[in-house]
């Protein structure tokens, strides 16, 4: 490994936005730690085949012990972490996701990964960044945090927490050289959205939310992450909307017939 390389940790690197982000950051010249509970062998292989440096770790972002083990492995191999893209996230597939019908099990599952996982991740990497003189973090939120969307109660709550935690951490650590921002995607064509986008009704409703008439692609989110991690030297505590104009247009909200 080139000792001048920065070490970038990407959670959720098994597929979708996480995989695209890991590949992009490797192309930017960073050594990338690919982390996911489902494994990251394919992502690591793609990066290495392109001449990049990558290392895979198994990580359940909702478990503090997993973070401890991951940071121990990363520190042993690379010395620490300079950059983190916290991409790992889920939607509720355990119960209906309205405020009344949502189960406690489903709430704990979604908030555990989407919100607690962000907190645990920042708690794990910030000490390393402080030791290395600074760092940057991008947390993936969602446009759902800005709107009421039918059938997404736990998801919306979790992503609102991501944005609040991002702002809070940016205040606490900005003067110590750590810039922390969030990205709020609209509908991105990833495995997590596959079931919705596969139905004519869901696909039509999704396309109608944008001002440009198409879904976003994982590489487009990865490009935004790359900017904030590499170039955004005077950006801190912000939420960048990468949503194809959904927030501007208002779009068409999903309803229970398209979920």
From TrEMBL:
Keyword Oxidoreductase assigned: yes
Organism annotation: Cellulomonas gelida
Superkingdom: Bacteria
PROSITE patterns the UniProt entry points to: ADH_SHORT
Molecular function, one GO term: oxidoreductase activity, acting on the CH-OH group of donors, NAD or NADP as acceptor
Signal sequence region: none
Similarity annotation: Belongs to the short-chain dehydrogenases/reductases (SDR) family.
Keywords for the protein's UniProt record, in alphabetical order: Oxidoreductase
Protein name as annotated: Beta-ketoacyl-ACP reductase
